[in-house]
From TrEMBL:
Gene Ontology cellular component annotations, sorted alphabetically: plasma membrane
CDD domains: TM_PBP1_LivH_like
Membrane topology: Multi-pass membrane protein
Source organism of this protein record: Tropicimonas isoalkanivorans
TM stretches of this protein: 16-35, 42-61, 98-123, 135-153, 191-216, 236-257, 269-298, 310-328
PANTHER family: ABC TRANSPORTER ATP-BINDING PROTEIN (PTHR11795:SF442), BRANCHED-CHAIN AMINO ACID TRANSPORT SYSTEM PERMEASE PROTEIN LIVH (PTHR11795)
Name this protein carries in UniProt: Branched-chain amino acid transport system permease protein
A biological process term (GO) from this entry: amino acid transport
InterPro entries hit by this protein: ABC_transp_permease (IPR001851), BCAA_transport_permease (IPR052157)
GO molecular function: transmembrane transporter activity
Assigned keywords, A-Z: Amino-acid transport, Cell membrane, Membrane, Transmembrane, Transmembrane helix, Transport
Family in the record: Belongs to the binding-protein-dependent transport system permease family. LivHM subfamily.
Localization of this protein: Cell membrane
Length: 343
């Protein structure tokens, strides 16, 4: 039982990432009808927003510290971050320590602006083109963004630590009546799961309970009729593209302490996230979220040692295997809508 609970917990953080990326993919496909293969790159850009802010906050200047000397007896040069000089040592150190959560505020306007630029500058020209053309152009854009990140940040992963208060692990098993140190789970992974729940809940609440969201849902169901009512649905859909970019970016920001950002992390999640979208059902937001968590947990169970001993390499193919089974039995996915991607 303790092994089962631990694998469920391990699957939740990766499932959260799958669900957030798939949610953004589904928002774009459901509103604009575009298969966006650059969405994984948006996840990567979000992670590098955290890297960028961390570097900005740690920019330093050198001063001479007369109280410290080197082995020759000369006063030593000491680097002092600008934020510590401006706000004081304690406040400045706290700001640097909380760089990743603060990156949320830093990333939101940047990711929305990138989403608007992508949609207005490139993707709007492919609305009426075949899905194959959309895949090719957005995949090419993803490669360009990936290489730009590699150019400016290098090819090596960049460690981006979580705040000190969230480092270490929580003895989850004690709460469930198990012996101490049986079910240990990192604090930040719990934070990531809760953060994903907030973002997913916020997106669904926005679509369900706001006038803007209701119009968007109506446009997703019948775009032509909404346009005939005098509503500029195109502008609203452009905003939804920016919102989807922000969701992917925030998923990347908070994932940075779990998996050190690198230039190919977007591609690593992209294919899996598309599998999640297809399994959940193209155009189905609840399906994308459900499939994201389901496949994340299944992947976690498949990575157990005894499972890999029985079926070597199962952890590498479990998601695709499940996708094949589901699509053979339910071609539209778990919660897919009739007519979507069937033309």
């Amino acid at each position: 039982m303790d092994a089962i609970i631990l694998q469920i917990l391990n699957g939740l953080d990766k499932g959260s990432a799958y669900a957030l990326i798939a949610l953004g993919l589904t928002l774009i496909f459901g509103t604009l009808g575009v298969v966006n293969f650059a969405h994984g790159a948006l996840f990567m850009l979000g992670a590098f927003c955290a890297v960028t802010l961390n570097r900005l906050l740690t920019l330093s200047f050198e001063t001479i510290d007369e109280t410290k000397t080197d082995f020759l007896g000369n006063p030593m040069k000491v680097k002092t971050p600008y934020v510590e000089a401006w706000f004081g040592p304690e406040t400045g150190a706290a700001i640097i320590d909380w760089a990743v959560p603060l990156s949320i505020l830093f990333a939101i306007p940047i990711m929305i602006a990138i989403g608007f630029a992508m949609e207005r500058g490139l993707i709007k020209h492919f609305y009426k083109r075949p899905h194959a053309d959309q895949i090719l152009v957005t995949f090419g854009l993803a490669i360009v963004l990936q290489e730009l990140i590699k150019l400016f940040f290098g090819a090596n992963p960049i460690p981006t630590p979580a705040p000190d208060i969230f480092r270490g692990s929580f003895d989850f098993g004690v709460l469930l009546g198990f012996d101490p140190n049986v079910i240990i789970y990192p604090y930040w992974r719990m934070v990531y799961f809760l953060f994903a729940m907030v973002i997913i809940g916020g997106v669904f609440a926005f679509l369900q309970f706001t006038t803007f969201g209701m119009v968007v849902r109506a446009g997703m169901a019948d775009r032509e009729t909404v346009g005939l009512l005098g509503i500029d649905i195109d502008k609203r859909f452009t905003f939804m593209f920016g919102l989807a970019a922000a969701v992917a970016g925030l998923a990347g920001v908070m994932y940075a302490p779990i998996n050190s950002p690198n230039y190919h992390m977007g591609m690593d999640f992209l294919v899996l996230s598309f599998v999640v979208v297809v399994v959940g059902g193209m155009g189905s937001l609840p399906g994308a979220v459900l499939a994201g968590f389901l496949l994340g947990i299944l992947e976690s169970f498949a990575s157990m040692t005894w499972v890999k001993d029985i079926v070597p390499g199962i952890d590498q193919i479990i998601i695709y295997l499940v996708a094949i089974i589901i699509l053979l039995t339910r071609p539209r996915g778990l919660m897919g809508r009739k007519g979507v991607m069937e033309d």
